[in-house]
Design brief:
Layout lengths: L2 H19 L1 E5 L9 H10 L4 E4 L4 H7 L5 E6 L4 H6 L1 H17 L4 E7 L16 H14 L7 E3 L1 E3 L3 E3 L7 E3 L4 H13 L4 E4 L2 H7 L17 E3 L2 E3 L2 H15 L7 E6 L11 H17 L11 E4 L53 E4 L10 H11 L16 H15 L13 E4 L39 H16 L4 H9 L1
Parallel strand pairs: 1-2, 1-13, 2-3, 3-4, 4-5, 6-9, 9-12, 12-13
Antiparallel strand pairs: 7-8, 10-11, 14-15
Amino acid sequence: MGPNGLFFLLLYSCYLLSSTQGLGFNWGTRSSHPLPGDIVVRLLKDNGINKVKLFEADPQALSALGDSGIEVMLGIPNEFLAPLASTVQVAEQWVMQNVSQYISKYGVDIRSVAVGNEPFLKNYMGMFEQSTYTALQNVQAALIKAGLARQVKITVPLNSDVYQTDSGLPSGGDFRADIRTLMIAITQFLIDNGGFLTVNIYPFLSLYADPHFPADYAFFDGSAAPVVDGSISYSNVFEANYDTLIWTLEKNGFSNIPIVVGEIGWPTDGDINANVDAARRFNQGLLDRISSGQGTPKRTTPPEVYLFGLIDEDMKSVDPGNFERHWGVFFYDGTIKYQLRLTDGRYLTPAKSVKYLPKQWCVLGPGANIMDPTLAGSIGYACTYADCTSLGYGSTCNGLDAGGNVSYAFNAYYQTMNQKAGACTFNNLAVVTRTDPSIGKCRFEVMIDISQHKKAKGGPVVSSDTTRPGRDSSVALSVVAVVVLLISSLTRVHHALIASVC
């Protein structure tokens, strides 16, 4: 091979490396039966993923990432912002326990700290506006004191509603008026300290929020009419949204700040638009863009991207929608939902060495009276402590009959309770079966055996276990209401139950 051939081979190798390094995954841990950390790390490595974003300093995840060679963006939940803003000493303690310790003792490659998570979301009504910037400053001061400021950069993951456009075109972009001064101060601070801006962009949510939104415009290969902004035509909402941010930054004097897309993806259940086909279409289109080095009209170099998410989380709050528990490319146990071709050309590989509870399920007993007056309370109880979101309209299990709906709820609770004795009684309405009741795409799960999990090393200064959103009570209450309808009007129970869980 001549020198020119060698040069282009090296150049191509660098391109492949950079494109692979441009992709990471969000690893959420709000699951009743989390996949063991060592298995998740092996899953990441088997799939060539060398970047991961954590939403909190989860001890099991961090210890498993030790000496893995995987770069970590470590998140700080919003409920920690006020304590961190109160005094720099709290930030120093947090950094010591959750950053310094895991870097020095366990060899975790922490590259950045994400202070808060979408703290300026309009729905928060300004709750975190007073604490975010001060917390950011204190965390940076703590990183400097720990001697980690060169290695560990800072950022604030922002929802794309921190900027807007009055004209409806990207070129009209600017920071939201109520937080414009704050956003300018934060952006300048990030630049001054070598940090970067992180933005979460969800085309799915555009479609979910507006029934008149052109569906094809949410995808990269759609045929929707483009949005024309001067000499630029935008054929998909991601490019238009991202360039609205670029215009916003340029107008405020920040044309060169690095940008990371902290979350982007498509869910597979919990809504009529959340399904495997749509998720595969969207995520493959995104990965193909990264592989080809395609940016946007305003920034032709593609940003670093963290796909949301890696694994389903059955304990996430469903306040935004039932789809919140179904963003994973993998099911909760690391099995593949749908195949994707990754940025380095390889295809998804499932998790290995996963240990399960026995293959048995809890279902409505064959002799059970579906008119039993205790049934409503039983289902309500089950869906309070377990995930019933797949029963919703347009979801994978919305085609079950009345008995199937009840069985699904009973089994979800039984598995969440680790198949414990007494977890499948429900006033003698339920029985345990060894015949899988799954039907088509509707999976009746058998959970991971969490007794096989390794004990986590270390631990955070403050645990978010008591403050993280758990089961959303509105789901359980709506199921109770529907089961009352089931008892009083059996012929209409199926449609009522579907409507209630939505």
